[in-house]
Fold each of these.
Amino acid sequence: MAYEKVNELNLKDTELRLGLPGTEEEVKQEQEVSCVRSNKRQFDEETRDEQESMPPTKTQIVGWPPVRSYRKNNNSVSYVKVSMDGAPYLRKIDLKTYKNYPELLKALENMFKFTIGEYSEREGYKGSGFVPTYEDKDGDWMLVGDVPWDMFSSSCKRLRIMKGSEAPALDSSL
Amino acid sequence: MGLPLPSKVLEHILSFIDSNEDRNSVSLVCKSWFDTERRTRKRVFVGNCYSVSPVTVSRRFPKMRSLTLKGKPHFADYNLVPDGWGGYAWPWIEVLAKKNPLLEEIRLKRMVITDECLEMIAASFKEFKALVLVSCEGFTTDGIAAIAATCRNLEVLELRECIVEDLGGDWLSYFPESLTSLVSLDFSCLDSEVKLSDLERLVSRSPNLKSLKLNRAVTLEGLESLLRRAPQLTDLGTGSFSAEFEPEMFSKLSKAFAECKQLKSLSGLWDVIPEYLPALYSVCPGLTSLNLSYATVRMPDLVGILRRCWKLQKLWVMDLIEDKGLQTVAMRCKDLRELRVFPSEPDLDDVSVALTEEGLVTVSRSCRKLESILYFCVQFTNAALVTISRYRPNIKCFRLCVIEPFAPDHITREPLDEGFRAIVEGCKDLRRLSVSGLLTDKAFEYIGKHAKKVRMLSIAFAGDSDLMLHHLLSGCEGLKKLEIRDCPFGDSALLEHAAKLETMRSLWMSSCFVSFGACKVLSQKLPKLNVEVIDEMYPPESRPENSPVERIYIYRTLAGPRLDMPEFVWTIHKNPEVGVSNLAIK
């Protein structure tokens, strides 16, 4: 339980973190709120409409809904949305139906009619310009294939197949 | 005139009284009854491990054979209590090992227990029979191995939803060949694979084994093999129930289940593949308890099972059952007493809308014995609550979680005040209540006035002002545990009704507007309470008196201030010189 300011230094400045360069860290910090006093009257008619048209920033309230973390960790309904840059609509797949990465990647290739390059731990995916990425439980975007399959399948919330120019940024941040 | 009742006679009479509530009443009659009662009490229950010292309990009940202890407050389940807060088993085990060596059973809930503790249990209690740990943490599989290896008469070993540092599956192999007394084994919360052959042999030499709950790592083949060796089971937790479908495996499994003619309770079913569900059909008509809350299968598959479970009394399921599936439950499970519906997407987005208030209304209408409800849902209406209360005045436990905070009646856009009014007015035997959705102070006026028997009340994101707390603390005659988060009340109601807190076991408040100053006043006024201020961000002493604190946990205690408080927990006893500065003590 370290206090955030030690000797007036804001330790957040020197914190190491994984993530895509240019992502906004500050937004994520505000998202974990332990109280929503300010949201109290959000159900007036006008404000309701405002809420619905706002971009979907997820506000994660600590401990809500009141589901035991044991249950949360064991309960993942494993349908995840899959998007591919340039494709007109999203697809959904059930991660449970695949046992490992090769099966998953093959299914994605079939679904979107493309080829993923060769994966290597050092360099990520090379060869086709398509890079499979996923958003994990913490909201971070990760490269598919880095962690063991079980860890991936239980923490993956959605998949995104990035294309061409955006993809290299992911490789170079590692 | 009137000879006193000989204590032997009284002892004999008391031997027929098991309920601790009754025994507590007996002990209040007079000194000699108190004394006789305490010398004969075998099963001791301590609802808050900090409310009394281990030495006091040990001394009072010398013939204690079973001790149940609860540690952290309930909201710890939802990560609202920081790690390191407390709830340690060690001080209790240490005393009991010395003073009550004939202890046979220890049951702990939300406590921290170390391997050292477990080793001490194994070494100290020669007649030890039962260890049940619920939502506990702090130990590894090595500690479990010590219990397995040493307790020669072990009957019960249950680890329910514990956080265990899993060092591998070897622990199971520590059960000696000579151990044949097992009645119940639950290792469902462990990750590592145990050696199947060791488990098979253990099961084979345990003729009294009635309850077996496997962990996820046990395969379908393993399950089938174990079932063949234990057809007498009444309570089964399957492993993962998942594999590529093979007709031969399916028929073997079906046969094995068909032999389990006494199976009453079924759980586990993680990762279940729908194609294997029909293997369960033969046991369905006998089931009284079914936990499908980890089975991520869709409604049609759930219905396939549930329509066959006509004796079901307890059903736990996910919202994947949808309103339609609950219609089947309403039609077929006429004996239903308890229903829990959990959310499948607990992170607030993408929530399934095929489960609405209608599902619960349908079940409430048709299942006359339904008395315990836990229901997670995206929406609700006052009308639905009124209907439920009309059909089911026998409800004892009603916990509704409308997932969106402040959500009003989705049709009328009104608060859910009137709906909960109907619940507390209509269900006169209500013992436990959790409210949610948009609620004004009015809702709490109704609850305060009518919820006379409610012992435990949980509130979140509700109310408008101090009035809400005033209503609750001046009413709710039977209230023992109150937990509140994110509600906009301040100090005044709390201070006005401070005396009520001595009639309750505990009060939890987090993210409300109670000030540090008020906490200090309470502490001064009511020395029989521990007023704990829990604040991870700033040391409470560094804050101004009128600033609201993060979390407060207040509980009555005979043991005085606790000595194991971490840095982020403050009570007045920590810095007595800080005390009350310029606030008047009434």
Amino acid sequence: MPAKAGDRHRQGQSGPSGGKAVPPRPAKAVSKKRDEDVSTEAGEGLDEWAAAKTLVKPPDQLELTEAELKEEFTRILTANNPHAPQNIVRYSFKKRAYKPISYVDQMAIHFSLNGNMILKDSDEGRRQKIRLSTAVEKASVETSAGTSEEAEIKDEESTGDTQAAGEEETEESGTAEVAEAAEAEEPPPPRVKEQKLANQFNFIERASGTLNNPMRERACQSEPIPCKNFSTTAYQWEIYDAYVEELQKIERSKEKEKSKAQIAKREEEKKKGRKLTSLESQSDDIMKISKAAKIMERMVNQNTFDDIAQDFKYFEDASDEYRDQQGTLLPLWKFQYDKTKRLAVTAISWNPKYKDLFAVGYGSYDFMKQGQGMLLLYTMKNPSFPEYVFSSESGIMCLDFHYDHSYLVAVGFYDGNVAIYNLKKATSQPSYKSSAKSGKHTEPVWQNELVHTDVIKLSVEGTTVQGPEGLQLQTLGCGTSFDFHKKIDYLFLVGTEEGKIYKCSKCYSSQFLDVFEAHHMAVDSVSWNPYHLKVFISCSSDWTVKIWDHTIKTPMFIYDLNSAVGDVAWAPYSSTVFAAVTTDGKAHVFDLSINKYEALCTQLVVAKKKNKITHIQFNPVYPVVIIGDERGHVTSLKLSPNLRRMPKEKKGQEVKKGPEVEIAKLDKLLNLVREPESKAEK
Amino acid sequence: MAEVEETLKRIQAHRGVVATIVVNAEGIPIRTTLDNSTTVQYAGLLHQLTMKARSTVRDIDPQNDLTFLRIRSKKHEIMVAPDKEYLLIVIQNPCE
């Protein structure tokens, strides 16, 4: 406080004088002026002194010249604080430099005094108020007439009160007692005390507030849009699929337009007729898995018959090298179906399109026991169950596939009917069937061939009937087998029960071109050589197999097989290889280019001796033959390498393949045979 | 319909076949010869694997498609034949 007072004094002096002038000088000037004032005042008062005009100078006053004394000093009155610093510099982080601050606070505090006012409502304020009120009460009580005892008590209380400053409880109890003792006077004084004290300006604070409306939250929410998480990966094939679908849609719409333009219904019906496979019913879920089930069955079979599959594909009998020229037949799969256990295999044929599919016809050769027949189609890929099963009332005697439309199978029955089965359709009934009206045979149909669209049937009674046209050829005997020439369309051979072979032509309906006195017993099978145009083979129950040139009446080769020969077949890969099966269960494979007189392989194929082999067929592609027997079994066998040997070429020459080579091969052989007999002639 | 049923029965009766499961497009088994928990497990896992395999095949060539999937393990062989909407799973013990 004293320091501040000193400040005040100093500042009070310099304030009016102006802040910018140098302090000591104006101070001196002021003091000087004051002195002058004083001196002039003193001069007026005391004339004698004034006349002298001598100034009273303090001893340490600055000596100044007259000019200097007369010098005028301007004083500017500003509101600036002279003590405020003018050159404050602060570091600016933005500019990374020290920057002078332009504005400086100019407030100068002249006087400050800490007050000792206490807020009325605070604790201390209340305490003091109560203390004051009790003091007033004491005073009022003391003035009123009261007992000395009470006064003493009060005195004591008051002394107690003064001694113990903050004991409110005693005060209160005291006041309560006082209130009880002196009855009437209590309420007014406290009320008076609590009256609002107006301040010196008569200012009373008054406040009012508006009514605050209670806040109420009103919210509205729309229903959330149902969200679904979807995630996928965009692959190239998904894009491709989308495009393909679009394309199909466009095509379908185009088709619909076309069909509308023409007669709609008929067109659609036709199209439906041509559609592949069975119509799937939409309601059946399990039908959709048919394809997968099929593949799966084949795979399961492949697993089970894994070794056989491996053999079929890769096994080549190495021991053939040591066996001279002999070969073997390796048994592969065995096909059987329980419903055909009592039936004999009467016909086998490979499908021209699908090289693993073959058809087997079941019936009975026994004249006395005739029952129902079955047509089964097996595939090598599934040895345990047939692909297609057709049953018929009468035993099947023969069957053939259509060359172009490989889904059509022509079947000849024992009762003389002929039927064509359409494999594309789901039904188990034939598509076409001849009946008594359409000129069917009355005797069993022994062989048929599906040539183009005609079904040519051969029946026992000796007529060859050609399809719907009904061309009939009368033969003297009863036909048992026939074969069409591969290249020459109209030419075909017919073998009879008597052992004769007739060469016939489609053009001549009543006469045959030639007759061969072939065998002593019924001719079981005739077959043209697949390569050589003139050669054919025949086999019969008289134990022989004969090879002919159709221009020559006598056979080229004769083989005696010690047992009735059931069937003979040329190999598709060579013009000199053929196989024959006999009723004693053996299969014989010959290769004329290697051994003209003996079979390269004679093997017992069927297990039980009582079983007779009825048919044999070569697979057009694979080195496999299938053999059907009387018990309804079909066995597949693989030909060992020796049986498939191609003639070795001389070094340097290209390996020629193709029909010409085969023809040449056979020709060579035939010439050897023919020379002693007749002129060498092609 | 009966044909397919018969085929499935034949497969199940074949030598070495342990189980047959038919799974739909979402991986839910609709037909099985195993107990429920194992079936669900097989169905879920193989469904994913088949999807992945199919995606792989088609990614390489979109015109190609998966026809069969075989997984051979020490104990048995799992074969999966995918279809447009279904999956046929067969577990077989290959006969050695």
Amino acid sequence: GTCVNVGCIPKKLMHQAALLGSALKDAQHYGWNISQPVHHTWSVMAQGVQNYVKSLNWGHRVQLQEKKVKYFNIKGSFSDPHTVRGLTKAGKETVVTADNIVIATGGRPKYPTDVAGALEYGITSDDLFWLKESPGKTLPSFILYVSLECAGFLTGIGLDTTVMMRSVPLRGFDQAKKTICFTTQQQMASLVTEHMESYGTKFLKRCFPTKVEKLKSNRLQVTWKNADLDTEETDSFDTVMWAVGRAPNTKTLNLETVGVKTNSETGKIIVDASEATSVPHIYAVGDITEGRPELTPTAIAAGKLLAQRLFGQSSELMDYDNVPTTVFTPLEYGCVGLSEEAAVQRHGSDNIEVYHAYYKPLEFTVAERDATQCYMKMVCLREREQRILGLHFIGPNAGEVIQGFALGIKCGATYPQMMKTVGIHPTCAEEVTKLHITKRSGLDATVTGC
Amino acid sequence: SVQAHKEEDNPQKTMEVNGLTPVPHSYDYDLIVIGGGSGGLAAAKEAAKYEKKVMVLDFVTPTPQGSSWGLGGTCVNVGCIPKKLMHQAALLGQALQDSRNFGWQFTEEVKHNWMTMTESVQNYIGSLNWGYRVALRDKKVTYENAYGEFVGPHTIKATNKKGIEKLYTAERFIIATGERPRYLGIPGDKEYCLSSDDLFSLPYCPGKTLVVGASYVALECAGFLAGLGLDVTVMVRSILLRGFDQDMANRIGEYMKEHGVNFIREFVPIKVEQVEEGTPGILKVTAKSTTGDQMIEGEYNTVLLAIGRDPCTRKIGLDKVGVNINEKTGKIPVNDEEQTNVPYIYAIGDILQDKLELTPVAIQAGRLLVHRLYGGATTKCDYVNVPTTVFTPLEYGACGYSEETAVEKFGEANIEVYHSHFWPLEWTVPSRDNNKCYAKIICNIQDNERVIGFHVLGPNAGEVTQGFAAAIKCGLTKEQLDNTVGIHPVCAEV
């Protein structure tokens, strides 16, 4: 699926490649005699990543075999409520019937429909991770976390990268994205993009492309409208990558024939709390379901629990609340729970307290790295117990930091409990247990000394 | 301040000039803190917030090798901070190797320059020393770089570097004098061996090093020295990381062994002789087996002793004021409000008996103590489920019970241990150890499978462990853990 082949896995590995580029620069400050600048070769990285992904493909096949799960490499669609018809690459037809059917076809990147040349000349994340040659000067377009993450690591390995954005960072088009903590978290999104700018990624804000043409040199010429200046501009790039959203893979499934209802706006499959569709024995999990976070771990958990419920072992439903996640931009952003905006909307600004801090990772000191955007905030209810509604962290290893706190929030953690927890020194995560300046106070939130 | 105290006879006037309310009983100060380390400074700064007249005395007796440092205590100068930075330097060495697999091109073998690293680290520490002095000044805390010792009730004598003595009185005292490395008591130890007090400011590369000890200090130092490319041997008397979960301790040792650190087990040095002078020179170490008569010899450029730390409590006049100490260990027993047997004398930090020797614990204890003394608070320091991390090459984060102590306390039948190896994604492409990282949680079956112990061995163990410690504080159960979705792909999701 997406995660293993064209999502989380190759993304994180390429992000790591970019981080290592920074590490190489830091290393000099720490005494390593390495001559700068060091150059990056795309094909070495791509091969390393692709080999690992292929080993995972193989691993999955072996596991299915070991667990006696029959695997067909065919494109399936419904011919009736209990029958799936599939075609192999060669066109050979297979028909399978089943008692229960789970649809988990995920999504695919969208192409913009209003930009000439978008389909012919642009690529998407589906292509990026499998390129054999460097994408060169790249323009990832629009702001979803996919776009920022890709732009981030492309810049990190030394490529000239520009991000074109129509409106604000990290806003998604899908309704489902609203359930992820970062979608409405404006402050954090700004810090993340600010960091990327200081890191070398160019941003074309409030711009949208109108056409992509191929030049004689084989490069691509992109024309766009700048909404602020009301002008039209052009520039040439080696690669144009679209990250304008993902569309659910439902069109070719023949869902109408069997009566599985989808959301007319998003195309996603409507399910209830037990992952059941409008047809009793047909279920759906993962990115394709309406109103769920598009994340691998939730899909995995939901799938497992579904199987456990179907075959009698349990009645436990999937809990989609407080799902933690991380955006792997050059300076990572991890979060769990509500964004500040969502908390204000739900409880009113008088009823929430936001504790925050700007901090500097110890490792940045000797490396002389800028920590301006290293920041965290905890959104709590103001009333006596001060339950934590959301935690947001920007800095290195954000995912590692947030995971444990997500557990705490699952346990109903309160601000006093957080303050009772002793910090581990010296780490970035310990700053979470020391948060004490509120936004309300207006005081300087910079952490000073031990 | 020096001028004012020379006059000595009108402390009241001095204080009024400073705009502070007079101290009862005509004491010079409301509070004198002996020791300007993590605990001492935290307490002093907190007390100043309550507008108390506070003095901090901090003094570093130079090591046998002559090393000394500024304000801030062990953590800042010769502990957590330089340790983590040098550990980072070693990790970056590994990153350099990995980066080739990720497409970064450089053919040369990259060498490490000790002086470049040490200078950068010392510069940063210097900025922290300075920062502390400024912070104390800003908060109107009087700081003297002088050795404090009790000479009578409510009275201490402060002796500075030049030998000038001054007497001060205070209503209350906090002892936060911390510890210093222990020596072996064998011929040549003080003359030729280094300790962690010397290592972080060493003005030359230590070269081929013998680390004596199996404490976290020993293993962390051995770890980063090896990571910087040095030939390192660790001489261990018996077990590794006494007091820590032994399964985890052994895994750490195995990893270090596989990554080039030599271990000599069940031997203790009996003498150290100098073969050649120099920076570094050559030292010959003779060691005896703990299980027989066997003797071995080895030559090293540097011998680093890391066999334990002793509290600085024997020469601060505690007998003059009747403060009890544990005669054997030198540690000070206190009640759960950090009070010694003398009501107006308190103690915090590494010198406390039966408490964890960690910076954040000292800071927390110091702050809460001051809140109780001057702010009318009642909250006591919570020493339960304090998380910690050992920054060995493969980092180890832990919170709560070790497997051994859990079995001892609850019985093997009443605990369940869930465990897993994991392979950090970042290690796949460079083909690094695929079965070394490991995590386990220990649950109390009788208490709703409450998580009573958390252990993780892997990169960024500290960052991973912190949040779990918070969750354990909230009474985390296995079920709640199972219900929490993982962040993908990170190590912590395991």
